TrEMBL record:
Major subcellular site: nucleus
Record's subcellular location: Chromosome, Telomere; Nucleus
Enzyme class: transferase
GO molecular function term, any single one: hydrolase activity
Protein name: EKC/KEOPS complex subunit BUD32
InterPro entries in the record: Bud32 (IPR022495), Kinase-like_dom_sf (IPR011009), Prot_kinase_dom (IPR000719), Tyr_kinase_AS (IPR008266)
UniProt cross-references to Pfam families, sorted A to Z: Kdo (PF06293)
SUPFAM superfamilies reported for this sequence: Protein kinase-like (PK-like) (SSF56112)
A Gene Ontology cellular-component term: cytosol
Length: 278
């Protein structure tokens, strides 16, 4: 599995790490990237050593080698910069541990927890439908159930937390580009307190920087469509996300929510027209 990525002894440290089957396990694979859970301090053991999430944008044989390396490096660095910028603005995102832009490898903090999709009863993504650019992976469905069952999270509180995080991200002028309930995680900790669970934004593979209210409105619209398609009868939940977003972003800026909300209404109208035309 991971051993197929093995290279010469001169390979980069991160490439050697993900190529070592005793330290890394392939979690997901897509057309653009492979995702591993890795233990940089050695093989996994009962002592639970710290683990990383390695996102490997492997070379694309259908592209010219130089072009492939250039695109891979740009996308890897862009994703890392988006995560760092978000963290500086107080957004809950995985910590960037290491970046190897030449090999296209991003080492991120491993997030223990479950996706908002799973918290809302949408189930775990199967391997076929998972997004290949996803930079972080939630726990298996069986483990998520064990984590969630004894400590149900009130929907209103969860939606409020989501809105706050999205507001912080947009205040940093970062557009996620692929907001779904699968790309929002609820971080778990060893404590039994509900306040110990925090919403973490993941998968910034399609993110970019923009101060445009249009881009922010489209970001919200993409999440709204994800809510309605994945979680039927969830319109009231997303409404709470928007209320929380508006409250928080109004504290960060001088009432930008009015302009963003207006743009969101326009984006919705365009979306309805497209669906009617087909």
């Amino acid at each position: 599995m991971a051993s197929a990525e093995a290279g010469p002894s001169s390979a980069s440290p991160l490439l050697r790490l993900l190529s070592d089957p005793s330290s890394s396990t392939l979690i997901k694979q897509g057309a653009e990237a492979k995702v591993y859970r890795s233990y940089p301090c050695g093989p996994a053991s009962s002592s639970s050593p710290p683990s990383w999430l390695l996102k490997y944008r492997f070379p694309k044989t259908y592209r010219h080698p130089h072009l492939s390396q250039t695109i891979t490096a740009q996308r890897t660095v862009s994703e890392a910069r988006a995560l760092v910028r978000c963290a500086r603005y107080g957004v809950e995102v995985p910590v960037v541990e290491l970046v190897d832009e030449k090999e296209g490898i991003l080492a991120l903090e491993w997030i223990e927890g479950a996706s908002v999709r799973e918290w809302l009863g949408g189930g775990a993504e199967d391997d076929e439908s998972s997004v290949s650019t996803r930079g972080e992976v939630c726990l298996p469905a069986t483990h998520c159930t064990r984590l969630i069952s004894p400590l149900p999270c009130p929907s209103v509180q969860l939606m409020t937390a989501i809105g706050h995080q999205l507001a912080l991200m947009h205040a940093a002028d970062v557009i996620h580009g692929d907001l779904t309930t699968s790309n929002l995680m609820v971080r778990s900790t060893p404590t039994s307190s509900l306040s110990a669970f925090r919403v973490v934004l993941i998968d910034f593979g399609l993110s970019f920087s923009s101060a445009s209210t249009e881009d922010k409105a489209v970001d919200l619209y993409v999440l709204e469509r994800a809510f309605l398609s994945t979680h039927p009868h969830s319109a009231h939940l997303f409404q709470r996300v928007l209320e929380s977003y508006g409250e928080r972003i109004g504290q960060l800026w001088r009432d930008p929510w009015r302009d963003i909300r207006k743009r969101l209404d326009e984006v919705r109208m365009r979306g309805r027209k497209r669906s009617m035309v087909g």
